[in-house]
Amino acid sequence: MSTDTLFQLILGIIVVGYLIDTWLDVLNFRHSQAQEWNQDIFTKERHEKSLAYQREKFRLSTASSLLSFIVSVCAIGFGLFGVLDDYVRNFSTNPIVLALLFFGAYGVITTILSIGFEIYGTFSIEERYGFNRTSVATFISDLLKNFLVTIILGGAILSLLVWLYQVLGANFWIAAWAVIMAVILFLFAFQTSVLLPLFNKLTPLPEGELKDALMSYCKSQGYSIKRLFVMDGSKRSSKANAFFSGIGKSRTIVLFDTLVEKLSTDEVTSVLAHEIGHDKRKHTLVLFIFTSVQMFIFTFLFGLILGREEFANVLGAEPSFHIAAITFFILFSPLSMLLSWLFNTVSRRNEFDADQFATSTYKAGAMKSALEKMASEELVNLSPHPWYVKVHYSHPPLIERVKALQ
Description:
Elements: H1 3-33, H2 44-77, H3 80-88, H4 95-128, H5 136-168, H6 172-194, E1 202-204, H7 209-220, E2 227-231, E3 242-245, E4 252-256, H8 257-262, H9 265-280, H10 283-305, H11 309-313, H12 321-331, H13 333-361, H14 364-377, H15 386-392, H16 398-405
Parallel strand pairs: 2-4
Antiparallel strand pairs: 1-2, 3-4
Helix pairs in contact: 1-2, 2-4, 4-5, 5-6, 6-10, 7-9, 9-13, 9-14, 10-13, 13-14, 14-16
């Protein structure tokens, strides 16, 4: 493939991808604004507030996406990736150092471009609708911590991958896949012990009525869970959540303090039952296998373009690991979207399954009540467009989950 053809293909992928994403966003926005008042979930006032909340988030998302699109087109059209590559080569010729400097500079630039939208979303939109609890100090602290984790963990992984490419050449992709999957497995097993405490405080669920109810349910299912924590999610948002992670003895269930605060004992127990359902029904294993296959495909394809001059020339740069990575991310973004769609399809099915497990093993109405209460509190979009759901939703829309529970 000639450089000119490849250049046109990459620009075409960026443009078409942006148009498809924008079309889906507009479809979803119009569909959400046309939703009828659901009196079982919203008061009239909450319904109007939900519509207004969706409007403001749509405007912010549209502006952010447009800027990202313009920057991407300019970066390709004016050879800015090549300019950045030339700049970092003034400091070193070592492939590992070059990759670290390139992606470090790239990360700083993208952060500067996006941080204004994040600040406005957090301290304006989320603040006005009563969700934001993030202080300026916490926001800055999170930014610095994320930066440090990215430098340390991301830098170590990137350095290892570049080194493997230098040593193994054409067979690099096999070792790269093994490294990436080892990291994913490690993070899944130990993120609540290693990474999460850097950002949030995890406290063992205190003795009392709620813990007794949760432990009683676990016992009824023959399920042993020794790591049951409450997380201070309220330091950033009033929105509630819960999640399961880990394998074997590292199995951990984390409940946001906002969840414990807003829901009744029965409702929290139903949420716990839902999370246990994911483990009992082997959903985590299925998604891990899916991710493993996905990474296998991506590393294989990445290995095919490494070292090929035309993929570097199209960005106006010399052949290198980091330039090949940028080209790969753009060129195979349609495949990434397809695999993401498949992943979300499986994930939504798993959520229905976990809901069914919760209602069949605990009080039937508790899960439905919990979902409706959280939807009302968080001004959830009750009417997302079906196509938007297929592409972007890892969880089914609330109305579909409630209907399934009924």
